[in-house]
Amino acid sequence: MLRCLVIDDERIAREGLLEFIKRFDYLHPVGDYANALDALPLIRNKEIDLLFLDIEMPGIKGIRFAELIVDMPVLVIFTTAYADYALSSYKGNTIDYLLKPIFLEDFEKAVSKARTWHERLFPRQAHPTCFLKKTASCIASPFGILCT
């Protein structure tokens, strides 16, 4: 499951992206921010896998913010109304660039790409094998005792 965060200064854009995120079982919306710097602690604590980031915002611009988090394990999908930023946005952790208004079909392609990249870059840790030992009518396991 990809933990998602939306950063956009426009409330309606944040709400729309959160609605799209909720449509996919492998995406989990963690929250949304109007200001990128407010989200920095959440990203630094590695609580986010996928960031939907607007480019034109008051204060710090999305591209500059993406440069600040380039060494953090978070993938970025830029969301903007300005096509002229497309080329300069593909640096660092950028997976895709969605032009507003965002259509569900384009969103689905972008998050599918992000899911694939996330699985490649951050493979799941192997889970230890669990052996069960049957004792009388109970089964002991590392997770507790199951009795039948």
UniProtKB/TrEMBL annotation:
SMART domains: REC (SM00448)
Entry superkingdom: Bacteria
Annotated InterPro entries: CheY-like_superfamily, Sig_transdc_resp-reg_receiver, WalR-like
GO terms for MF: phosphorelay response regulator activity; transcription cis-regulatory region binding
Keyword Protease tagged: no
GO BP annotations listed: regulation of DNA-templated transcription
Positions of modified residues (4-aspartylphosphate): D54
PANTHER family listed in its UniProt record: REGULATOR OF RPOS, TRANSCRIPTIONAL REGULATORY PROTEIN YPDB
Name of the molecule in the record: Response regulator
Source organism (scientific name): Hymenobacter cellulosilyticus
